Amino acid sequence: MANIKSQKKRIITNAKRTERNKAVKSELRTRVKAVRESKGAPENAEALRLAVKRLDMAAAKRIIHPKQAARRKSRLMRQINAAK
Prior knowledge:
Elements: H1 5-37, H2 44-60, H3 66-83
């Protein structure tokens, strides 16, 4: 355990941020999985829109790298178009 007051605060802040980031990443995985499982279904467009939105939001908050978000969106679109 740290002895310095600012470092104690940093530990608490980092723990909060880690929990928040973990929740966002978990939702990303859930949204992408929903798109992959609903290939060719009518609700696929809505699931795809939500997944892309969450990827963009995570990239904007720098939870994931913006290029990683672009790559994941590209691969997702390719899978959906191949399934049609």
